[in-house]
Amino acid sequence: MFKKLSKQLASAVLCSAIASTAWAADKVVVGGKFFTEQFLLSEMTTQLLKASNIPVEQKTGMGSSLVRKAQENGEVDLYWEYTGTSLVVYNKFKQRLNSEQTYSKVKELDAKKGLVWLQPSKANNTFALAVRKNGNSIFTLSDMANAYKSGAELNMAGTAEFIGRSDGIRSLQKAYDFRVPRSMLKSMEAGLTYSALKDELVDIALVFATDGRIAAFDFYLLEDDLQFFPDYAVVPVVREEVLKQYPEIEAKLNTLSAALDDEVMQRLNASVDIDKKPVEEVATAFLKAQNLL
């Protein structure tokens, strides 16, 4: 009797484990990298899918290469990636392309790996140069170049990498035909460039285009009118296999993608980083405002 009961119990446990595994396999695993913007995008995606009765599991806080590898291995089904990152880092493509070409190329290259790039957002988290809005008379990188050529004394804050690498300030100066005197180049950690510009220690600062501090500190991003900086449009990327199982994901995420641009992402990021609001709260409020929830 005891042996029979033990066998029945073992069988029940095994069936339960199999059912649990099958359920986990049917879940859409939403990944994300380890910074505010990615936490927000992952949370908004998760809430959207749950509202559509799609089973979801969230895995955020991953390194860039790790989350990409996890997606290629089928451990992550969906996350928001940047066009320039896929082009240069994952696909080792070295030719300079404009924004449309970059999107088309990564879409083509990643399709061979079973990854589908949905519609791109207008949020481009690329490198940018910022100035303070107050009293600003420079609006483009060409304006900035002309100011330096006319002898204007403008201190610029940038990272050591941006100042030292051949594809940083040196290439920028070549592309726009100007030169920043060495005494006016201030090397510092990436996060400090924002406070240096805000506190008027410098006149121009290297920033990331969708950082929340741009809006919070009332900065103006200089237009890259010669398209020097690579394009880093943020786009939802889904495994083809999962998209076949849940085709409704495409329309949902395309609608969300269409609602995102630099200003929107700056505001959302600032809500978390500056106003200290919870990611979940910010994500829900935005989705409701867009009539997506």
Give an overview of the whole structure.
The chain has 293 residues and is α/β, with parallel strands linked by helices. The chain folds into 2 domains: 22-124 and 232-289, 3-Layer(aba) Sandwich (D-Maltodextrin-Binding Protein, domain 2), CATH 3.40.190; 127-221, Osmoprotection protein (prox), domain 2 (D-Maltodextrin-Binding Protein, domain 2), CATH 3.40.190. It has 14 helices and 10 strands. It has helices at 2-26, 36-51, 64-72, 83-90, 99-111, 141-149, 160-164, 169-176, 192-198, 212-216, 240-245, 248-258, 262-273, 279-289; strands spanning 28-33, 56-62, 78-82, 115-117, 127-132, 156-158, 185-187, 204-208, 219-221, 234-239. The chain has a 5-stranded mixed beta sheet. The protein has a 3-stranded antiparallel beta sheet with strand order 3-10-4, sandwiched between helices. α2 crosses α14. The longest helix is centred in the N-terminal third of the chain and has 25 residues, at 2-26.
Number of strands: 10
Number of helices: 14
- How does the overall form come out from the CA principal axes? globular
Poorly predicted regions = 1-24
Question: Structurally, how many domains make up the residues?
Answer: 2
| The CATH top-level class label of the largest domain | Alpha Beta
State the helical fraction: 40-55%
Largest sheet, in brief, is: 5 strands, mixed
> Could you please say which CATH topology of the largest domain applies here?
D-Maltodextrin-Binding Protein, domain 2
